[in-house]
What we know:
Layout: H1 2-17, H2 26-34, H3 45-75, H4 79-101, H5 123-138, H6 143-155, H7 160-180, H8 182-192, H9 196-215, H10 219-223, H11 226-232
Helix pairs in contact: 1-6, 1-7, 1-9, 2-3, 2-8, 3-5, 3-7, 4-6, 4-9, 6-7, 7-8
Amino acid sequence: xxxxxxxxxxxxxxxxxxxxxxxxxxxxxxxxxxxxxxxxxxxxxxxxxxxxxxxxxxxxxxxxxxxxxxxxxxxxxxxxxxxxxxxxxxxxxxxxxxxxxxxxxxxxxxxxxxxxxxxxxxxxxxxxxxxxxxxxxxxxxxxxxxxxxxxxxxxxxxxxxxxxxxxxxxxxxxxxxxxxxxxxxxxxxxxxxxxxxxxxxxxxxxxxxxxxxxxxxxxxxxxxxxxxxxxxxxx
Length: 235
């Protein structure tokens, strides 16, 4: 069951990165943090890469702290309460899955909630602080996927920190890769941006299925299928 949860959390991070109002801005934003432009050549590639690493470190720190806090709170409640939290978590996951498929709309998730970072002269410190601000509400686009993972964490308190770490990894790796190949990434994003809508739909359907399995307390049965285990464990 843990392997399935980690996979869902990692995919949620990737989907957050691919959100239509995040992905198109990434190359230019990372270049801005590095104090350069996407097309300034290989000489500035290192600066963009470092900026992306620090940006990822910023939001990963926030998600890690959130994971520790949630783990502490959820582990302190009684088993009977955890059972109801599990069902509530399943409903939350279904809810955000419906949102990602476009079947329901949530106004506050479609409004920008940015935190500005001003008065910091070091571009490296600025990159880190922007990462912290990103996790704290720089964009609503990660709200649906992150909300689903928090709902998943409510169903498995012991895995809370690990789930948010897997989510951070899924969100962070594409940022780092984009920072390493910023100019190529910008061209790729322009060429394939039209498929982002379908990525959200596919992941939304996956969340709905996972949410139903969690609500009915049958996710563990699916996770124990030999074929699925062999796929997840590479054997």
